[in-house]
Amino acid sequence: MNFAFTEEQEELKKGARQFLENYSASEAVRTLMETDTGYDPQVWSRIGTELGWPSLHIPEEYGGSGFSYVELIAVMEEMGRALLCAPFFSTVCLAANALLVGATEEQKLEHLPGIAAGETIATVAYTEPSGKWDASGIAATATADGDEVVIDGTKSFVIDGATASLLIVAAREPGSEGDAGVDLFVVPADTAGVERRALNTMDMTRKQAEIKLDGVRVPAANRLGAAGSGWETLSKTLDLACVALAAEQVGGAQMCLDMSVDYAKVRVQFGRPIGSFQAIKHKCADMLLEVESARSAAYYAGWAAAEDNEELLTVAPLAKAYCSDAYFHCAAENIQIHGGIGFTWEHDAHLYFKRAKSSEILFGDATYHREILAQRIGL
Q1: Residue 236: exposed, middle, or buried by beta-carbon count in 10 A (0-12, 13-18, 19+)?
Q2: Which H or E run contains 33?
Q3: CB of 70 closer than 8 Å to CB of 303
């Protein structure tokens, strides 16, 4: 087992960093944060057509490049470093994974080529106003009516929910509870009865939305896979998404460390760089330890995802928990090392702090994932 990237994968990371340094610099991120869509259509088009990132782990028979999850996390790490504002995570790490895990062959052939080409923006809508991340939080109902299904409910915190053209909605059979009776349905965003509203969140680099579904009718054939298998599909999709998010968090944590070290070398106090003070040295050393440990966890989880290994069940929540803690701590220490300037709007430290906090809570915080890990290993 080799956890070093191959020469080709290193070139992929290098190319991704060069592109993101040019098109996801601080000025671009700040500009896109203030827009309604939250991304630059021209940059998104180049990501899909020229770079082919949305197609990385999608099999060739569905229009993808046929690489593995390892290539995906390599790019996700660079995206986290640059705070990329684009509907990549929602489309590729959530929607595409849901289709790959649970869709029928016909559904994969219908929807995945558009995602791979960067033409389709998609997302998964399953969290509701209760804020619960497990199956008990799914209250939206899917009622059979002949050859159709009628979906009613409200979804919150849907990543890129206001701009996606394709929604994968979690709903349950009326009267069902827990994991049972949950299904996923493909819902075009322009379907009658779908109402979307952008949310004002702490981290505006990753747009979220509230989606209301009032009597939304879709063909029964839009159900992903077999009836009642929705939570099984969604659970694995979330594990895969957590692995991708962990890699993104590693990239952000590394950037916080780099910013701290660079500043400690040039900020002079009492006639010497602050990096020469023991307290600052200790902070940077602790950050380095956390970043490297987080990277090891994310890379191992990426390998498990690429191999579709049974260890994914344990390493996905482990990676999400550890990388969440590491990123948030590094982002907080970055502000402390920068001192007063780190708190100002003009400095980028607060952008990483906000992304670290939102990523920590996304799909459940570290405590939630440690509980999942404990349950899965029988503790």
Answers
A1: buried
A2: helix 26-33
A3: yes
pTM greater than 0.90: yes
Among 302, 298, 278, 279, smallest CA distance to 290 is for 298
Give the CB-side neighbour count of residue 35, counting CA atoms within 13 A. Answer: 15
User: What is the pLDDT, as a whole number, of residue 267?
Assistant: 83
Helix (H, G, I), strand (E, B) or coil at 326: helix
The predicted-structure confidence for 197-239, as pLDDT tens digits, reads as follows 999 999 999 999 999 999 999 999 999 988 889 999 999 999 9
Sequence-distant (6+) residues with CB within 8 A of 133 are 127, 238, 363, 364, 368
What's the angle, vertex CA 159, arms to CA 121 and CA 75, rounded to 5? 70
In this structure, the number of other CB atoms found within 10 A of the CB of residue 378 comes to: 5
What are the start-end ranges of the E strands in the chain? 122-125, 141-145, 148-159, 166-172, 182-188, 194-198, 208-219, 268-269, 272-273
Task: Report helix, strand or coil for 125.
Answer: strand
Residues of the chain with pLDDT under 50: none
pLDDT of residue 2: 61
Residue written as tokens 């944590």?
Answer: 253
CA–CA–CA angle 54, 331, 84 (5° rounding): 20
Instruction: Determine which helix (DSSP H) or strand (DSSP E) holds 236, and give its type and residue range.
Output: helix 230-266
Instruction: Report the Cα–Cα distance between both ends of the chain, in Å, rounded.
Output: 28
Q: Which of 234, 241, 253, 243 is nearest to 326 (CA)?
A: 253
DSSP for 145-200 reads ETTEEEEEEEEEEEETTTT-SEEEEEEE-TT--TTTTEEEEEEETTSTTEEEEE--
Count, residues in the chain: 379
Counting other chains too, the contacts that 287-292 makes at CB distance below 8 Å and 24 or more residues apart are 287/253, 287/256, 287/257, 287/260, 287/329, 287/330, 287/333, 288/257, 290/253, 290/325, 290/326, 290/329, 290/330, 291/250, 291/253, 291/254, 291/257, 291/326, 291/330
Report helix, strand or coil for 144: strand
* Pairwise CA distance, residues 172 & 61, whole Å: 31
Q: Per-residue pLDDT tens for 160-177?
A: 999 999 999 999 999 999
Long-range pairs, 269-275, Cβ under 8 A, ≥24: 274/337
